[in-house]
From TrEMBL:
GO terms for cellular component: plasma membrane; side of membrane. InterPro entries: GH, Glyco_hydro_17, Glyco_hydro_17_plant, X8. It is an enzyme of class 3 (hydrolase). Its EC number is 3.2.1.39. It is a lipid-anchor; GPI-anchor. The lineage of its organism: Eukaryota, Viridiplantae, Streptophyta, Embryophyta, Tracheophyta. It holds the Pfam family Glyco_hydro_17. Keywords: Cell membrane, Disulfide bond, Glycoprotein, Glycosidase, GPI-anchor, Hydrolase, Lipoprotein, Membrane, Plant defense, Signal. Belongs to the glycosyl hydrolase 17 family. GO terms for molecular function: glucan endo-1,3-beta-D-glucosidase activity. PANTHER family: GLUCAN ENDO-1,3-BETA-GLUCOSIDASE BG1-RELATED-RELATED. It comes from Quillaja saponaria. This is glucan endo-1,3-beta-D-glucosidase. It comes from the Eukaryota.
Length: 488
């Protein structure tokens, strides 16, 4: 996006109203996604401190929670607020509802609170193939109503709309980006949306996940998922591709260009690498991917089709242990930080601290105690399987399994891990460590060098308001557990 860099500098020379329109598109440091689907989230004020101490100046949210936005007030951090998919129907069908949304969730925070809201993300990956078209009829009308409401509120220049889309809204017939176009079954809809965004000076937002390429295809060349080390480069009419991120991004550039929108600004709304829950989700790969990306990003290096700097938001800030694991067990492990704000690996964001991420401070932990399988309990006890299934169905066992951080535990370790997860998620209640007569509480840390038996942090009640209940996908969790037991 070399064009915008140039325009950004020229902005100082052109009349003020031009500058106002351009400032939205100027690039300023890396952004991060901040989600709150966790049983024990850090409080919003603690997260805002974490962002500031790490020099992160842009944040993307998935809703417009008032407690979160209040914490961002006067922080100097630019904000993208989000509208969840389940609100699209209402906002598509009611101008009044869209006006209320903008008034309460944008205008109020800008005028009273000094929250620097720059974007409204309308929906989250609404055209994902797995949604079976559920949001196809409502996304564009909701987008239109929110845009009108922003204009009516006098925010048309300051706040831009966008729709974060999964990269599966476009496809290519070959590994060459130049064969790219929008997905056939939503081609017309995509053109209407792109035209609407373009008419309103709004960017295209896309989420790009090389990890998923590797996860979905055992034959995918591992090095091609990263930003270094791939030898069999792809030549697309003289443009050379040595990583799938560039190829994916440029497939979108071609799709836009073919349909007459070659200059449309693109924001990468999500990109990152998980650290657990799959054999390809580990600290080494996450470090390689994110550092590889950050080094290029900070050097202002784009893709072969758009060689200049662009805007991107890493996915994500912290792990979220209450996320649905329908996409896979890795889904709860995307954080640059663990749930408690402790960095996972050495990452230089090129902002404040070149020695790596700065941890959250003053985090209050629960007591150092754990719930484990009693030494006297027998693995042959018929209660073992039901107890583990119960615990994993209500807590988080995504760090167990082939190639994961706790994949090396023995059978007894597996059971203890499940018991402990349930006990900690329930704030170390005595009653949460009563798995018939199999369990006991200990102050001896059962963790191994690879596998952490966590204990949780204290949470303030206000943080829990917007959180998603743990039982949202019990079926998936239970089937995972049965699998675990057939293996054992
Ligand atoms: C504002 O956003 C919150 C959080 O996403 C949502 O629950 C609420 O309904 C929105 N308010 C209005 C008036 O739509
Ligand atoms: C989409 O369709 C599939 C197959 O018919 C079904 O299993 C799935 O539950 C549907 N998903 C949604 C979100 O409707
Ligand atoms: C522990 O559970 C994991 C996860 O299913 C399984 O792969 C592994 O084989 C189990 N280990 C033992 C020793 O039973």
């Amino acid at each position: 996006m070399g064009l915008f860099k140039v325009l950004g500098f020229r902005g100082f020379l052109v009349p003020l109203f031009f500058f106002a329109a351009l400032v939205v598109a100027s690039v300023s440091g890396i952004g991060v996604n901040w989600g709150n689907q966790a049983t024990h989230p850090l409080s919003p004020p603690a997260v805002v401190k974490l962002l500031r101490n790490n020099g992160i100046q842009k944040v993307k949210l998935f809703d417009a929670d008032a407690y979160t936005l209040n914490a961002l007030s006067k922080s100097g951090i630019q904000v993208m607020v989000g509208i969840p998919n389940d609100m699209l129907y209402t906002l598509a069908n009611s101008v009044k509802a869209a006006e209320n949304w903008v008034s309460k969730n944008v205008s109020a925070h800008i005028s009273s609170g000094g929250v620097d809201i720059r974007y409204v993300a309308v929906g989250n990956e609404p055209f994902l193939s797995t949604f079976n078209g559920t949001f196809e009829a409502t996304t564009l009308p909701a987008l239109q109503n929110i845009q009108s409401a922003l204009i009516k509120a006098g925010l048309g220049n300051k706040v831009k709309v966008t729709v974060p889309l999964n990269a599966d809204v476009y496809e290519s017939a070959s590994s060459q980006p130049s064969t790219g176009d929008f997905r056939t079954n939503i081609h017309d809809l995509m053109l209407q949306i792109v035209k609407f965004l373009n008419d309103n000076g709004a960017p295209f937002t896309v989420n790009i996940y090389p990890f998923i390429s590797l996860y979905n295809d055992v034959n995918f060349p591992v090095d091609y998922a990263f930003f270094n080390g791939y030898e069999s480069t792809i030549n697309d009419g003289g443009k050379i591709y040595d990583n799938v991120f560039d190829a994916n991004y440029d497939t979108l550039v071609w799709a836009l260009q073919k349909n007459g929108f070659g200059n449309m600004p693109i924001i990468v709304g999500e990109m990152g690498w998980p650290t657990d829950g799959d054999r390809n989700a580990n600290l080494q790969y996450a470090q390689r991917f994110n550092q590889g990306f950050m080094t290029r990003y900070n050097a202002g290096k784009g893709t072969p089709m758009r060689p200049g700097p662009f805007d991107a938001y890493l996915f994500s800030l912290v792990d979220e242990d209450a996320k649905s694991i329908q996409p896979g067990n890795f889904e709860r492990h995307w954080g640059l930080f663990y749930f408690d704000g402790q960095p996972k690996y050495l990452l230089n964001l090129g902002t404040i601290n070149s020695n790596g991420l700065v941890p959250a401070r003053n985090v209050h932990y629960l007591a150092k105690k754990w719930c484990v399988l009693k030494p006297s309990a027998s693995l042959d006890d018929t209660q073992v399987a039901t107890s583990v299934s119960y615990a994993c169905g209500r807590a988080d066992c995504t760090s167990l399994g082939y190639g994961t951080s706790c994949g090396g535990l023995d059978a007894r370790g597996n059971v203890s891990y499940a018991f402990n997860s349930y006990y900690q998620i329930n704030d170390q209640l005595d009653s949460a460590c009563k798995f018939s007569s199999l369990s006991m509480i200990t102050d001896r840390n059962p963790s191994t060098s690879d596998c952490l038996f966590r204990f949780m942090i204290e949470i303030d009640d206000a943080s829990l308001d917007g959180r998603i209940g743990l039982l949202q996908k019990p079926v998936v969790l239970v089937s995972f557990v049965f699998m675990l037991f057939t293996i054992m």
